[in-house]
Amino acid sequence: MNVYMPEGLLYGTERNKELTASRRGLEKAAAEGLILEGRVSLCDHKMGLHIELARGITGVIPKEEVLFSPTDEPVKDIAVLTRVGKTVAFKITGVKRDDGGECVLLLSRREAQKECYENFIKNLTPGDIIRSRITHLENFGAFLDIGCGMIALLSIDTISVSRISHPSARLSVGDVIFTVVKNIDAGGRIFVSERELLGSWEENAALFSEGQTVRGIVRSVENYGIFVELKPNLAGLAEYRDDVLPGQCAAVYIKSIIPEKMKIKLIIIDAHDAEYEREPLEYFINTDAVRHIDAWTYSPPSCKRVIESVF
Q1: In order of start, what are the domains of the chain with their CATH numbers?
Q2: Whole-angstrom Cα distance, residue 80 to residue 82?
Q3: Which among 86, 214, 216, 219 is most buried, taking Cβ atoms within 10 Å?
Q4: pLDDT 10s digits, 211-232
Q5: What are the C-alpha distances in Å from 230 to residues 12, 233, 235, 268, 280?
Q6: Which residues of the chain have pLDDT under 70?
Q7: 297 - beta bridge partners?
Q8: Which helix (H) or strand (E) holds 39?
């Protein structure tokens, strides 16, 4: 399977720099139909996107070449304007003269995306593990670039097992993460998940021991107790206290770890308002070697309640 990188990851590579830095490199890329990346400097009155390439050479992506849609949806102005200042993928499709008589390269992001779709995205199946880049966050989830600017959705309930109120609690725009393909609907829209890569209950619980006092973040305060996240895929329950609020940092004592009930009982030693420093995401799958999973089980074998994903 061919793998196409999210936009921005090719831009700083030596290969991309070499091909875009000279006329000869650009001619080679055009002749071989290679995908390059460049940063959009402006959008002109015709809705064309301008990219400065080798010295004295400008490339323009016409509006109709900004976006590929498997269903041939028209390109909206907002899809063009929001590319200004950002790095985009493109292929060189020709040469023309601008209004001032200067030669400019004709570029197509659409052709780059079409190649990505035909050779990579179209062949994805549920369970495939892919590299993704966060493009923007909404209350309901995160939109990801999974190759050449092609978008997939990571809904908030699939980011982790531990519940969060907004994706920004876990992710930031620009983050490069790994996800697993969850579903592809009839319209070709791709939905991905991350929690299957962040470890089972046992794998996360093995990082802690009874009697330890560790840090956590308060995720939910209920009348029957307080849920404190220890890891993205692991939370414990402490007794209710009226002086503890969601979002606070907490020092918690681990009272007991009970695999057969999939529970961790905690005692809150202290809770305070402070910015919680997120730790780098830890994947429990070797994403360099494993490209596909058929199923994932979160719950321990000794637990009667089974939590799993089948792809």
Answers
A1: 14-119 (2.40.50.140), 124-197 (2.40.50.140), 201-272 (2.40.50.140)
A2: 6
A3: 216
A4: 999 999 999 999 999 999 999 9
A5: 36, 8, 5, 12, 13
A6: 1-2, 98-101
A7: 308
A8: strand 36-43
